[in-house]
Amino acid sequence: MMLDTLKALLAVYGPTGQESSVAECIKGLLAGHADSMRTDVMGNLIVEKKGRPGGKTLMFSAHMDHIGLIVTDIEDEGFLRVTKVGGVSVDSMRCRHVVFGSGVHGVAACQPAKGETAGLQHLFVDIGAQNRAEAETMVQLGDACVFAPDLIPLGQHRFASPAMDDRCACALLAQLLIETENPQNTIVGVFSVQEEVGLRGAATAAYQVAPDWGVALDVTAWGDTPEVKLPAVKLGEGAAIKYLDNSMVATPCVRDALAAAAEKAGVPWQREVLPFGGTDGGAIQHSRGGVPTGAVSIPCRYVHSACETIDMRDMDSALAILKTFVNEAL
């Protein structure tokens, strides 16, 4: 089930540049459900399910990495100085529970001097060490921490957790591969690395795969909480089909085929016009001589926080769209 797949992926440590544990989890979930699986030099997991003769090769990309903090220095008192990996804001990190890959836990905090504006230079992590020597037995320079896993049910259909961006789309792609048999078109599922620092994994994966069409799977921002009304996307009203973001203008033939699949599947969907941000679709679209590319997005509140919130009905909508899409004569 989709929720079980999502729970498994949210529990795995995987900051940008250290996604291998996420890839191993996905391999386990997809065992017996793919024609091939391989990991490339960058760390992308590339999974193929062959289609029928004459079909297109469709690349779907969902990124495995999670924003975090990396240790830059250890102070004499045992506190860790850090900098961001990906789109971390100071406000999102105030007094937050974080965890390192080794299992060491800490509290991220920010304490600017009186009269100063809080900035990245004021962030530190408290791991309970009394001095530098003790801290160095627990953590080293270059180690990265992320928001500690904490899945929270909200009402009947919604869940909040760190790493929904983009483990929810990884769960969606995994479920597509699990549930689709003998598709019309070949599915190449790319579970990409280093999206949060510049779409790096998707760029190299798209060059290797050389797909006929590409589709990015990611979260998008929300417009349904107090004082936040744009983009015009709401939780629970269906997956969003992207028209534009800062990384790409969706290719009309792909965008329209996704919309047609949504209509054929009979599920709710929304149009997404995002005046900021980007997805792996931007890298896919620019690959080689260019690839027709679109994106399907999961509406998500509080993106890049410890409580990224989605609605499972939107996940179900997205899965229905994709299952129909891969079986169309495109």
In short:
With 330 residues, the chain is of the alpha+beta class. The chain has helices at 2-10, 20-30, 132-136, 164-179, 200-209, 252-265, 280-285, 312-325, and strands at residues 36-39, 45-49, 57-63, 68-74, 80-85, 96-100, 105-110, 123-126, 144-147, 152-154, 158-161, 186-192, 213-220, 239-244, 269-273, 293-299, 308-311. Helix 1 crosses helix 4 (164-179), helix 4 (164-179) crosses helix 8 (312-325) and helix 6 crosses helix 8 (312-325).
Give an overview of the whole structure.
It is a single chain. This protein has 330 residues and is of the alpha+beta class. The chain folds into two domains: 2-66 and 163-325, Aminopeptidase, CATH 3.40.630; 69-147, Beta Barrel (Elongation Factor Tu (Ef-tu), domain 3). The protein contains eight helices and 17 strands. Strands 1-2-12-3-13-16-14-15 form an eight-stranded mixed sheet, with helices on both faces. Strands 4-5-8-7-6-9 form a six-stranded antiparallel barrel. It has a three-stranded antiparallel sheet with strand order 10-11-17. The longest helix has 16 residues, at 164-179. The radius of gyration is 20 Å and the shape is globular.
